[in-house]
């Protein structure tokens, strides 16, 4: 029995990976004083916010194929659910 992860699982893991990679790069740049650090104890928040701002458009560009696969998977599930609902409604009408 082989496990093939769903498109949603793969997309989520890849998006998280891009965020973590961005976070580590930005943390390194702040650590070596290439980028300014936050005020007081806000440094972690600053790095996380900057990583989010950078990783969002990067994910949008890099994960296009995975996002399309996710959309197809969701559309198929919605179609199956609609078919089951229609079948259940026709059974109720026949009673």
Describe the secondary structure blueprint for this structure:
Layout: H1 7-31, H2 43-62, H3 64-94
Helix pairs in contact: 1-2, 1-3
Which class of secondary structure composition applies to the elements?
mainly alpha
What is the straight-line distance between the termini? 41 Å
Largest beta-sheet characterization: none
* Percent of sequence in beta strands: under 5%
Radius of gyration over all CA atoms, rounded: 22 Å
Number of strands: 0
User: Helix fraction?
Assistant: over 70%
**Unreliably modeled segments:** none
Q: Number of helical runs?
A: 3
Average of per-residue pLDDT values: 89
Question: What general form does the structure show?
Answer: elongated
H/E element order: HHH
Pfam family, one: DUF4229
Keywords: Membrane, Transmembrane, Transmembrane helix
Protein name: DUF4229 domain-containing protein
Transmembrane segments: 12-32, 44-63
């Amino acid at each position: 029995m082989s496990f093939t992860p769903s498109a949603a699982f793969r997309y989520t893991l890849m998006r998280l990976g891009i965020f973590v990679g961005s976070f580590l790069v930005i943390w390194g740049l702040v650590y070596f004083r290439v980028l300014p650090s936050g005020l007081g104890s806000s440094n972690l928040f600053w790095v996380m916010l900057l990583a989010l701002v950078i990783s969002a458009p990067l994910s949008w560009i890099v994960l296009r194929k995975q996002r399309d696969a996710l959309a197809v998977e969701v559309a198929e599930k919605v179609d199956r659910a609609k078919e089951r609902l229609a079948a259940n409604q026709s059974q109720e009408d026949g009673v």
